[in-house]
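Sequence only, no structure available. Ideas?
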Amino acid sequence: MGITFGNEVTIIEPSNIYHCTLGDNCFVGPFVEIQSGVKIGSRTRVQSHTFICELVTIGEDCFIGHGV
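Reply:
I predicted one. Tokens follow.
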């Protein structure tokens, strides 16, 4: 099991991303950790310094940020 990427996904390094699914046109900022089993819907933005724990599902067109 690895990472499943949709089309046109942007990941800014450094980031720790493990066994998850990222939908089309997702953005992942620097210093993000996404743990195993996470599903992130299309067009969702995960801003810098964000931690998403395992088995979380995030829908489409969402904004996830540190302290939001």
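Residues 20 and 34 are 8 Å apart (CA to CA).
Hope that gets you unstuck.
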